[in-house]
Design goal:
Distance between the termini: 23 Å
Shape: globular
Number of helices: 14
Helix content: over 70%
Largest sheet: 2 strands, antiparallel
Order of helices and strands: HHHHHHHEEHHHHHHH
Radius of gyration: 20 Å
Strand order of the largest sheet: 1-2
Structural class: mainly alpha
Amino acid sequence: MTTLETAKRVLAGPHRRVLYAFAAAATILVAGAVIHPGFGSWTSLRTMLVLASFIGFVGAGQMLVVLVGGIDLSMPWVLNGAAIVLTTSSLGQSGRLPLAVALALGVGAAVGLANGLGVAWLGVPAVVMTLGMNGVLQGLSLGLSKGLTCGSCASYAPEPLRRLVVGRLFGVPSELLLWAGVALFVTVLLTLTTFGRRVYAVGNNPRAAFLAGVGVRGVTVVLYVLSGVFAALAGIMLVAYGGQPSLGLGDPYLFESIAAVVVGGVSILGGRGHYVGVVAGSVTLVAIVTLLQAERVPEYGRNVIYGLVILAILFTYGRERADD
């Protein structure tokens, strides 16, 4: 097979949307570098990648449930709740860090399990189930914290965790290495394991997957558990990066996680998509916002342009699907 034939095969296959996602990210980065010379510097790129990593963490979980035709709207307060649990259980003490991390991830896993059981076993629509859980978590967080997340209780991230997240290894931020680890895990899980093949089978046709012997309900529950864990992980990373939690910390990441997944070429109907596309989608979203801020565009203008760019990318995907 010639190089040209190989290229045509890739462009005609499921990897085409991933290439589009990276092309969109590259276009915005190049445009920013032309308009603002410092935009393309390593310092600027490093900052944008770190910010994109937070979207990438929640985007990993969102992508997994979207692959089976679901959605997770509980992410904002899973993220926020995990951040609060981490700081209030550790009290800023290094010796309490392992238990605090386990508790924070446990919150995400427990919420994900509840979501998965509700969707897979009780037949509750994913939108209703996860939105309801988000409301429950918001109420619990506000009630237990009395609307406060910091103060004399020393609710700060322990120093070892902060050093791990904001530190560098050979000049590369540790946050990006952690994101690379997540990307590797998700990619291997979906492409090199039997479980991954079952995920795509369920996403493409749940009925056919069931008849082929796939445990559709079990796969769905596991994916929602992983979604909760990734949201909790994002909360841990954010609180370590910023030092302490704040109420509403996870609110911006609901739209951004869904947008990164869709811009990254994952089919919202399920059964199609790769995490490397979500990585590109996360970078694209951050690059758009950074460029608009550099241009001093007012917030309302940023929101309009931000939405239009996302819609333009999705329109491209729609045309591509219609041409198939």
